[in-house]
Amino acid sequence: LMKDEAYCQILKQITGNTSSKPDSCQRGWRLLYILTAFHRCSEVLKPFLLKFLQDASRSQGVVFQGIARACEQNLRKTFRYGGRVVPPSSMELKATVAGRSSKRQLFLFPGGIKRHLKIKTCSVALDVIEELCYEMGLHRLEAVDEYAVFLVTERGQNVRPLNKREYILDIATEAEPVDSDYSLWFRRVVWTQTLKFDNELCVTMHYNQVLPDYRKGLMNTLPGGKVSEQQFLQISKLSALQHRAKDIRFTPSIHELSEYIPSLLFGKQPPQAWVTMVTQHMQQVQTLNPHQAKAQFLGPPTLLTKYRQLCSLSPPTPLTKYRLFCSLSPAHSAH
Length: 335
Known about the structure:
This protein is 55% helix and 9% strand. It is mostly helical. The strands form two sheets. The protein has a three-stranded antiparallel sheet, with helices on both faces. Strands 1-2 form a two-stranded antiparallel sheet.
């Protein structure tokens, strides 16, 4: 009842406004914009409120068409997701009162790739996931379900996945006082859908997520502690592809190979032997551009199969937290 009363008081201000102040009605609309983002009205008032907002947004010549439409969208999202739960920061309130209803928020892909998205008052994590997936050429609902947004604070020591229904500005408002350097990361968490190789951002994102785990040797098994000839060849090819993914054509140095090859495997033969094997593969990958090299790196079915198995560890262990931190680190970005 108190919420309905608040709605009715604001509606009275914007419909029967007799104030001498020229911005009184405008301020009423902006207050309604905030209220619709945080609180539901009753089911009794809902159809009448929605009808009022729809009429205001569609009426020709009405000054407040835009904000009426935004209020309607806020109210529908509040009924769908529950409404904002964290009081808005002073900065957000000032922006809303000034008529600014969105902010640019930074989201990071594995490897430190940056994307700035326009976040509105009622944007939830699902909105972000859908927009970033769309940019990667992923439009099916099943594909979107395989990605998540993570809140990272204290330089990666605290990592928390966001519920898809959580409001981004709630997260930002809570995180800012605790850690002004907080970050929001986007990554894949489930691996059932096939990889889309024709989208450059999609390939780069997955390459940057898989690469740290591969280099740490988390996807290699050595029966009896021995490396087979086939494994030597595959590791050499993957090393050549990593080098070409950096848009380098000349033969990698021993130091570079020690970074490309998991340390457990690198010591299985003399460094010069690795150079010889990788050089042969470099000749085969010369014609590839960096995007094609990354796609081929992800191409071997066994590689992604092992990665899926690695990601399916349950319950979470220190290893999964370590893997997440590594895949988020910009140090692992493919240049």
